[in-house]
Amino acid sequence: MNIVLDTFVLVAAVRSRRGASQQLLRRLPSPQFTPALSVALYMEWQAVLTRPEHLPPGMDAGRMLGFLRYLAAVAHLQDVHYLWRPFLRDPGDDMVLECAVASGSRYIVTYNLKDFRRAGELGVKAITPADFLQLPELSP
To answer: Per residue in 32-60, pLDDT tens?
Structure first.
């Protein structure tokens, strides 16, 4: 199944080794789910995660870019040919939704459930990392 990872799920994963976001990333690559990624979303990942305030202690921007290249390598690169803008309350979230719709993703994994409420109208469910990891499809 394809999923889309919201940027701040990655931020949470690099900030805490014990959180659900980190657990989700540790499962990659996974036979049960594949992150879908558009060029626009990848560019946002790079812009946000290489900011000094988001770099974990001891990690520089170059090493973070290596981590993001790994994520891109295990992801499904999705072209987006149709834009749904404006659709969501926060215009910055529209590219996440567009990637999800174009890739046929069932879930957008995010902490921002409120802003993705309308995603259900397009057949995509917003879900937290912890709830995603509890899905029956991910049971061993």
So the answer is: 999 999 999 999 999 999 999 999 988 99
How many structural domains is the chain composed of? 1
Q: 104: which DSSP letter?
A: T
Report the 10 Å Cβ neighbour count for 129. 22
Give the Cβ contact number of residue 123 at 10 Å.
11
Residues 6+ apart with CB under 8 A from 47: none
Domain encompassing residue 104: 2-138
Entry pTM:
0.94
Tell me the C-alpha distance between 138 and 99, whole Å.
Answer: 22
Domain CATH for 58 = 3.40.50.1010
